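Subject: sequence -> structure tokens, single chain

Hey, anyone have a minute? Need the predicted structure for the following. Not urgent.
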Amino acid sequence: MKKRLLLHLSPLATVLLLVSAVSAQELVDRPELRSFVSRMVEQHQFNAPRLLRMFKKVRLQPDIITAMNKPAESKPWYQYRPIFLNRKRIEGGVAFWDKHVNALVRAEREFGVAPEIIVAIIGVETRYGGFTGKHRVLDALSTLAFDYPPRSRFFAGQLEQYLLMTREEQIDPLSLKGSYAGAMGIPQFIPASYRSYAVDFNHDGHRNLWDDPVDAIGSVANYFRRHDWRAGEPVAMQTHVSGNGYRELLKKGVKPHLPLAQFPAFGVQVPEQLDLSQPGSLIELETEGIPEFWIALHNFYVITRYNHSPLYAMAVYQLSREIRNRWEEHH
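Reply:
Had a minute. Here:
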């Protein structure tokens, strides 16, 4: 590649062009791939020639790098919210609840997670299974493991988990499709989550998150229970702030860190229905006018274990409330 060409490109275009050039190289000839294969052989007794034949069929995807650098969660709240809080997504959630009411009732009974939370997660992730991703999972994870240095270690780990998962489930690793980040099926589990939290909720002998909404419902509920979801507890409440002291709370992040009894000292009102002894955090949402402020509680933090963005967690929570309200109107 000529240096003269690179001088006339934007930084992002330069990165993509370099990635394309690297991707054109035979993946199996790259030392990092060879090292990965050796590790899979030594630690998990995979067959090296078989793995190399499989990786020869992998196609690295520069557009995945582009998507990783422009996630929806980088949008301000007032642009992010309408993606998920709209009539189609709400009505779709009511229809999904109606269709799978028995599984949702059983999931709440066995795992303690309310139906609207499970439904909202599936609604945000894949529009109730309507869109589960277009990228081959093996291509996506290989691209991110070997061509995305900022998180290559994490995605190499997910690639390892994916190969273990497909071996355990007796699935062709080249056959599955998912998101650009390697998330899979109706609930968009990454491979490590699939291995740890997916359940055979319909008891047919298989954990099928691609075609079986019942298994997806049980798996989402199990994920939340394993991350300490507390049945019946509030998730978040909108509040008002005064002065500038509240900014100190914003710096602490989304994990509950301070008893609510201390919030007024920072200029934050606490709704009277909340237990002042419980810890909380403060989040700010950007609107086109005055920002919104919310007190986030333990269950809000649990939602962020599914996706670390507070925007994501708030979208799930608000969608769940809209779906619950609409479902109750119909019943």
